[in-house]
Here is the input.
Amino acid sequence: MDIFEKCSQYTTAKEVMQAGYYPYFLALTENEGTEAVFHGQRLIMCGSNNYLGLTTHPKVRQAALDAIQRYGTSCTGSRFLNGTIELHEQLEREMAEWVGKEAALAFSTGMQTNLGTISALVGSEDVVILDKQDHASIVDGARLGWGDTLRYRHNDMADLERVLKKAPPEAGKLVVVDGLYSMEGDLAPLPEIIPLCKKYKSRLMVDDAHAMGILGGGRGTAAHFNQTAGVDLIMSTFSKSFTSLGGFIAGDEDVVHYIKHHARAMIFSASIPPANAAAALAALHVMQAEPERIQRVNDIGTTMRKEYKRLGFDIGKSETPIIPIFIGDDMRTLTIWKELFNAGIFVNPVLAPAVPEGHQLLRTSYMATHTDEQMSRVLETFEKVGKQVGLIS
Here is the structure.
């Protein structure tokens, strides 16, 4: 069999394109802040991870420009060899301090952070334990490790304990969860997870890619629950609230030192370009200096959750400015997405198998820089489209 045969047999995406409902790889003319432009049409952006709206902040932009002037466009090498500059180390020190850990290590992307960290730590005699709704980067990091992978039902503490009991007592164990789940906007119950990890002698890693900048005064899920000491490793990306590119892992100095010398995803990748490191660092400084942005995005989230519920939409268990609108069918989800898009609202359709069958949804997310007028228009449009398609009455 020709290995390329599967490529010609894959027709699903082309069929959706031909039907006019293809929602992916949309090349936007403009995509900064609360609005985007597609083929001349201006849309309110409710699908971005730019939670604090810092991509347009003058201090963040200037920091990136200054870094290019000083360092050029790239470090042209791995952190392990010639690709480390002082800016990387400053970024790591300040991120570690921000999340309350001894040390941090920066990777070139968030995906690589999880791939490198988990695969470096999980050896052949170890077990990694995942929530069934963990991000794909966590799942792939576990696959790259040499140990066994066990999974438990989403946020089900009885099932987590069942899985922890199942793991060999002598095995090294690492539980990995998303702090804030990026599709449904709900939180990992760290106050319940941490005692179970201690009981069964497991370490705990929290992926705070989406929580950083939103929860815990911007410090993430562990800070939100006042449980920083009980979380062994805190991971986050620079591509969301920090409005750049890259990621970091933070924890005890000895653990970070080990990851630094064993994480293939970091050792064999070029380092973060200077402009990206500078932008992430500047975003952190703005976050610290302008805490009202964190309050604003959470206030918007509270208002939008309340209003969606009032209108009759199913938003599940969201507690954050990430708010799903559950539809439950692939084609219906695409149809509603298209109607909203045509009406000037950009949201993200999430289909099976990215979510379980029957849980297809529209993922909406909000920024501190959204205006009240924009949010009113979003709600009015959702209400109109929802009634038009029979999703709400």
